[in-house]
Amino acid sequence: MEHKLSFMSDGLKLSGVLHVPEGRKPGQRLPTIIVLHGFVGTKDKSHVELVARMIEEMGYCVFRIDFRGCGESEGARGEVRCHDQVADTRNALTFISQREEVDPERIGLTGHSFGAAVAIFTGGVDRRVACVISLCGWGNGETKFRGQHPTPEAWAKFEQIIADGRRHKAETGESMCVSRFDLVPIPPKLRENLSPHAQTEVPVETAISMYNFRAEDVVADIAPRPLLLFHTANDVITPMEQSISLFQKAGANAELMIPTGVSHLPLSDKDAPHTRKLIAAWMEKFFPSPLGTAA
Predict the structure, then answer these.
(1) Which DSSP letter does residue 70 get?
(2) Which backbone phi and psi does 40 adopt, to 5 degrees?
Protein backbone atom coordinates (compact mmCIF):
# COMPACT_ATOMS: atom_id res chain seq x y z
CA MET A 1 0.00 0.00 0.00
CA GLU A 2 1.31 3.45 -0.92
CA HIS A 3 0.28 6.85 0.43
CA LYS A 4 1.27 10.04 -1.36
CA LEU A 5 2.16 12.62 1.30
CA SER A 6 3.66 16.08 1.68
CA PHE A 7 5.50 17.78 4.53
CA MET A 8 7.16 21.11 5.22
CA SER A 9 10.88 21.79 5.34
CA ASP A 10 12.16 25.34 5.89
CA GLY A 11 8.93 26.75 4.46
CA LEU A 12 8.92 24.52 1.37
CA LYS A 13 6.41 21.76 0.66
CA LEU A 14 8.23 18.51 -0.07
CA SER A 15 6.76 15.41 -1.66
CA GLY A 16 6.96 11.86 -0.35
CA VAL A 17 5.46 8.41 -0.70
CA LEU A 18 4.90 6.13 2.29
CA HIS A 19 4.99 2.39 1.61
CA VAL A 20 3.17 0.16 4.12
CA PRO A 21 3.65 -3.62 3.82
CA GLU A 22 0.54 -5.71 3.34
CA GLY A 23 1.28 -7.82 6.42
CA ARG A 24 0.85 -4.94 8.85
CA LYS A 25 -1.85 -5.56 11.44
CA PRO A 26 -4.29 -2.79 12.52
CA GLY A 27 -2.63 -0.52 15.05
CA GLN A 28 0.80 -2.09 14.52
CA ARG A 29 3.75 0.31 14.41
CA LEU A 30 6.57 -0.90 12.20
CA PRO A 31 10.25 -0.05 11.87
CA THR A 32 10.61 2.42 9.03
CA ILE A 33 13.31 3.44 6.56
CA ILE A 34 13.48 6.87 4.92
CA VAL A 35 14.97 6.55 1.41
CA LEU A 36 17.02 9.41 -0.03
CA HIS A 37 17.67 9.83 -3.75
CA GLY A 38 20.97 10.63 -5.41
CA PHE A 39 22.39 13.69 -7.13
CA VAL A 40 19.51 15.86 -8.48
CA GLY A 41 17.47 12.69 -8.74
CA THR A 42 13.90 11.91 -7.75
CA LYS A 43 11.94 9.48 -5.62
CA ASP A 44 9.93 8.24 -8.63
CA LYS A 45 10.89 5.90 -11.48
CA SER A 46 14.39 5.71 -10.09
CA HIS A 47 16.89 3.46 -8.36
CA VAL A 48 15.65 4.63 -4.96
CA GLU A 49 12.15 3.52 -5.87
CA LEU A 50 13.61 0.05 -6.41
CA VAL A 51 15.28 0.31 -3.00
CA ALA A 52 12.00 1.38 -1.39
CA ARG A 53 10.06 -1.52 -2.86
CA MET A 54 12.78 -3.98 -1.83
CA ILE A 55 12.69 -2.81 1.80
CA GLU A 56 8.88 -2.79 1.87
CA GLU A 57 8.90 -6.42 0.75
CA MET A 58 11.14 -7.21 3.74
CA GLY A 59 8.40 -6.07 6.11
CA TYR A 60 9.17 -2.40 6.77
CA CYS A 61 7.38 0.88 6.24
CA VAL A 62 9.35 3.00 3.78
CA PHE A 63 9.20 6.74 3.16
CA ARG A 64 10.85 7.91 -0.07
CA ILE A 65 11.10 11.66 -0.55
CA ASP A 66 12.05 14.30 -3.10
CA PHE A 67 14.58 16.75 -1.70
CA ARG A 68 13.83 20.45 -2.19
CA GLY A 69 14.35 21.55 -5.78
CA CYS A 70 13.93 17.98 -7.04
CA GLY A 71 11.06 15.87 -8.34
CA GLU A 72 7.66 17.05 -7.11
CA SER A 73 9.01 19.11 -4.21
CA GLU A 74 9.10 22.87 -4.07
CA GLY A 75 12.34 24.82 -4.36
CA ALA A 76 14.57 26.21 -7.10
CA ARG A 77 15.28 23.48 -9.64
CA GLY A 78 18.70 21.89 -9.26
CA GLU A 79 19.85 24.15 -6.43
CA VAL A 80 21.11 21.28 -4.32
CA ARG A 81 22.86 22.20 -1.08
CA CYS A 82 24.09 19.36 1.11
CA HIS A 83 23.12 20.85 4.45
CA ASP A 84 19.69 21.78 3.05
CA GLN A 85 19.20 18.11 2.25
CA VAL A 86 20.23 17.18 5.77
CA ALA A 87 17.54 19.58 7.01
CA ASP A 88 15.00 18.01 4.63
CA THR A 89 15.87 14.56 5.97
CA ARG A 90 15.49 15.61 9.60
CA ASN A 91 12.15 17.26 8.81
CA ALA A 92 11.01 14.09 7.01
CA LEU A 93 11.91 12.11 10.13
CA THR A 94 9.90 14.46 12.35
CA PHE A 95 6.92 14.23 10.01
CA ILE A 96 6.85 10.48 9.42
CA SER A 97 7.34 9.65 13.11
CA GLN A 98 3.81 10.96 13.70
CA ARG A 99 2.16 8.42 11.38
CA GLU A 100 0.22 5.61 13.05
CA GLU A 101 1.98 2.99 10.91
CA VAL A 102 5.46 4.04 12.05
CA ASP A 103 7.38 3.11 15.20
CA PRO A 104 8.90 6.51 16.08
CA GLU A 105 11.77 4.88 17.99
CA ARG A 106 12.85 2.77 15.03
CA ILE A 107 13.31 5.02 12.00
CA GLY A 108 16.42 4.46 9.91
CA LEU A 109 17.89 6.12 6.85
CA THR A 110 19.18 4.80 3.58
CA GLY A 111 20.45 6.71 0.58
CA HIS A 112 22.11 6.05 -2.72
CA SER A 113 25.27 7.90 -3.80
CA PHE A 114 24.73 11.58 -2.87
CA GLY A 115 21.73 10.53 -0.77
CA ALA A 116 23.98 8.09 1.09
CA ALA A 117 26.35 10.90 2.09
CA VAL A 118 23.35 12.87 3.38
CA ALA A 119 22.07 9.81 5.28
CA ILE A 120 25.44 9.30 6.98
CA PHE A 121 25.76 12.95 7.95
CA THR A 122 22.19 13.06 9.28
CA GLY A 123 22.73 9.90 11.29
CA GLY A 124 25.84 11.43 12.79
CA VAL A 125 24.12 14.61 13.97
CA ASP A 126 20.61 13.35 14.82
CA ARG A 127 20.29 10.72 17.55
CA ARG A 128 16.72 9.91 16.50
CA VAL A 129 18.10 7.96 13.54
CA ALA A 130 18.05 4.27 14.49
CA CYS A 131 20.32 2.93 11.73
CA VAL A 132 21.98 4.02 8.48
CA ILE A 133 22.41 2.10 5.22
CA SER A 134 24.75 3.73 2.72
CA LEU A 135 24.58 2.47 -0.87
CA CYS A 136 27.62 3.49 -2.94
CA GLY A 137 28.03 6.64 -0.88
CA TRP A 138 30.84 9.02 -0.04
CA GLY A 139 32.25 10.83 2.95
CA ASN A 140 34.62 13.52 1.65
CA GLY A 141 33.49 15.76 -1.21
CA GLU A 142 36.95 16.86 -2.29
CA THR A 143 38.47 13.38 -2.49
CA LYS A 144 35.30 12.07 -4.15
CA PHE A 145 35.58 14.67 -6.91
CA ARG A 146 39.29 13.96 -7.32
CA GLY A 147 38.48 10.29 -7.78
CA GLN A 148 35.81 11.13 -10.34
CA HIS A 149 38.24 13.35 -12.29
CA PRO A 150 41.41 11.28 -11.91
CA THR A 151 43.70 12.64 -14.62
CA PRO A 152 45.47 16.01 -14.41
CA GLU A 153 43.54 17.17 -17.46
CA ALA A 154 40.18 16.13 -16.04
CA TRP A 155 40.90 17.75 -12.68
CA ALA A 156 42.03 20.98 -14.35
CA LYS A 157 38.78 21.05 -16.33
CA PHE A 158 36.76 20.53 -13.14
CA GLU A 159 38.63 23.30 -11.32
CA GLN A 160 38.07 25.62 -14.27
CA ILE A 161 34.32 25.01 -14.09
CA ILE A 162 34.34 25.98 -10.41
CA ALA A 163 36.47 29.09 -11.07
CA ASP A 164 34.26 30.18 -13.98
CA GLY A 165 31.17 29.71 -11.83
CA ARG A 166 32.56 31.81 -9.00
CA ARG A 167 33.54 34.57 -11.44
CA HIS A 168 30.16 34.51 -13.17
CA LYS A 169 28.38 34.82 -9.83
CA ALA A 170 30.61 37.72 -8.75
CA GLU A 171 30.16 39.60 -12.01
CA THR A 172 26.44 39.02 -12.65
CA GLY A 173 24.98 38.03 -9.30
CA GLU A 174 23.49 34.98 -11.00
CA SER A 175 24.43 31.33 -10.90
CA MET A 176 26.13 29.64 -13.84
CA CYS A 177 24.54 26.31 -14.72
CA VAL A 178 26.56 23.36 -16.01
CA SER A 179 25.84 19.80 -17.08
CA ARG A 180 25.56 17.39 -14.17
CA PHE A 181 27.78 15.02 -16.15
CA ASP A 182 30.62 17.57 -16.18
CA LEU A 183 30.55 17.46 -12.38
CA VAL A 184 29.82 13.76 -11.84
CA PRO A 185 30.78 11.74 -14.94
CA ILE A 186 28.44 8.84 -15.68
CA PRO A 187 29.09 6.45 -18.60
CA PRO A 188 26.38 6.72 -21.26
CA LYS A 189 25.24 3.12 -20.69
CA LEU A 190 24.54 3.75 -17.01
CA ARG A 191 22.68 6.98 -17.79
CA GLU A 192 19.89 4.81 -19.15
CA ASN A 193 19.08 3.85 -15.55
CA LEU A 194 18.56 7.44 -14.39
CA SER A 195 15.03 8.57 -13.67
CA PRO A 196 13.38 10.38 -16.60
CA HIS A 197 12.58 13.09 -14.06
CA ALA A 198 16.22 13.59 -13.05
CA GLN A 199 17.70 16.99 -13.86
CA THR A 200 20.59 17.43 -16.26
CA GLU A 201 21.86 20.90 -15.27
CA VAL A 202 22.80 22.36 -11.90
CA PRO A 203 24.32 25.64 -10.70
CA VAL A 204 28.04 25.59 -9.91
CA GLU A 205 27.19 26.37 -6.26
CA THR A 206 25.86 22.82 -6.04
CA ALA A 207 29.31 21.44 -6.80
CA ILE A 208 30.89 23.79 -4.27
CA SER A 209 28.46 22.55 -1.62
CA MET A 210 29.35 18.95 -2.41
CA TYR A 211 33.08 19.72 -2.47
CA ASN A 212 32.91 21.07 1.09
CA PHE A 213 30.63 18.33 2.47
CA ARG A 214 32.32 15.88 4.83
CA ALA A 215 30.09 13.14 6.21
CA GLU A 216 33.25 11.37 7.33
CA ASP A 217 33.66 13.97 10.09
CA VAL A 218 30.55 12.69 11.88
CA VAL A 219 30.36 9.02 10.80
CA ALA A 220 31.86 7.83 14.11
CA ASP A 221 29.02 9.54 15.96
CA ILE A 222 26.53 7.07 14.49
CA ALA A 223 27.89 4.36 16.80
CA PRO A 224 26.69 2.30 18.54
CA ARG A 225 23.70 2.51 16.20
CA PRO A 226 24.10 0.12 13.23
CA LEU A 227 25.73 1.35 10.01
CA LEU A 228 25.99 -0.57 6.73
CA LEU A 229 28.41 0.69 4.10
CA PHE A 230 27.50 -1.14 0.90
CA HIS A 231 29.67 -0.28 -2.09
CA THR A 232 30.10 -2.14 -5.35
CA ALA A 233 33.63 -3.12 -6.29
CA ASN A 234 35.19 -1.01 -9.05
CA ASP A 235 32.32 1.50 -8.96
CA VAL A 236 32.94 3.70 -12.01
CA ILE A 237 30.93 6.65 -10.64
CA THR A 238 31.66 6.98 -6.92
CA PRO A 239 35.08 5.60 -5.94
CA MET A 240 34.88 2.51 -3.74
CA GLU A 241 37.63 3.99 -1.56
CA GLN A 242 35.08 6.43 -0.16
CA SER A 243 33.23 3.68 1.70
CA ILE A 244 36.46 2.03 2.81
CA SER A 245 37.60 5.33 4.32
CA LEU A 246 34.22 5.79 6.02
CA PHE A 247 34.47 2.31 7.52
CA GLN A 248 37.92 3.07 8.89
CA LYS A 249 36.51 6.13 10.64
CA ALA A 250 33.26 4.53 11.83
CA GLY A 251 32.63 3.18 15.29
CA ALA A 252 31.01 0.05 16.70
CA ASN A 253 28.34 -1.87 14.76
CA ALA A 254 29.59 -0.70 11.37
CA GLU A 255 29.83 -3.23 8.55
CA LEU A 256 31.38 -2.89 5.09
CA MET A 257 30.18 -4.92 2.10
CA ILE A 258 31.94 -4.77 -1.27
CA PRO A 259 30.21 -7.14 -3.70
CA THR A 260 31.56 -7.75 -7.18
CA GLY A 261 29.77 -7.91 -10.50
CA VAL A 262 27.31 -5.08 -9.85
CA SER A 263 27.36 -1.42 -10.86
CA HIS A 264 26.87 1.90 -9.08
CA LEU A 265 23.14 1.12 -9.45
CA PRO A 266 23.13 -2.36 -7.91
CA LEU A 267 19.39 -2.98 -8.02
CA SER A 268 19.31 -2.23 -11.74
CA ASP A 269 21.66 -5.14 -12.54
CA LYS A 270 21.07 -8.79 -13.33
CA ASP A 271 22.75 -9.60 -10.01
CA ALA A 272 20.18 -7.56 -8.04
CA PRO A 273 18.97 -10.71 -6.18
CA HIS A 274 22.46 -11.03 -4.66
CA THR A 275 22.31 -7.42 -3.49
CA ARG A 276 18.89 -8.00 -1.96
CA LYS A 277 20.07 -11.05 -0.02
CA LEU A 278 23.06 -9.20 1.42
CA ILE A 279 20.98 -6.23 2.57
CA ALA A 280 18.19 -8.48 3.90
CA ALA A 281 20.67 -10.47 6.00
CA TRP A 282 22.11 -7.28 7.49
CA MET A 283 18.67 -5.90 8.33
CA GLU A 284 17.57 -9.17 9.93
CA LYS A 285 20.62 -9.01 12.20
CA PHE A 286 20.76 -5.31 13.05
CA PHE A 287 17.28 -3.86 12.40
CA PRO A 288 14.71 -6.66 12.27
CA SER A 289 11.06 -6.23 11.44
CA PRO A 290 8.37 -7.97 13.52
CA LEU A 291 6.89 -9.16 10.23
CA GLY A 292 9.99 -11.30 9.86
CA THR A 293 10.20 -11.13 6.05
CA ALA A 294 13.82 -9.92 5.93
CA ALA A 295 15.10 -13.44 6.59
Answers:
(1) S
(2) 40, 40
Local confidence pLDDT in tens for the 295 residues of the chain: 999 999 999 999 999 999 999 999 999 999 999 999 999 889 998 888 999 999 999 999 999 999 999 999 999 988 889 999 999 999 999 999 999 999 999 999 999 999 999 999 999 999 999 999 999 999 999 999 999 999 999 999 999 999 999 999 999 999 999 998 899 988 887 777 677 777 788 999 999 999 999 999 999 999 999 999 999 998 989 999 999 999 999 999 999 999 987 888 788 767 688 899 999 999 999 999 999 754 3
Counted residue by residue, the chain has a size of 295
Q: Which CATH topology does 2-143+206-286 take?
A: Rossmann fold (3.40.50)
Q: In the beta sheet, which residues pair with residue 36?
A: 65, 111
Q: What is the pTM of this model?
A: 0.93
Query: How many CB atoms are closer than 10 A to CB 223?
Result: 15
Residue 12: which of 85, 110, 118 has the closest Cα?
Answer: 85
What distance in Å separates the CA atoms of residue 116 and residue 86, rounded to the nearest whole number? 11
Phi/psi of residue 276, nearest 5 degrees = -60, -40
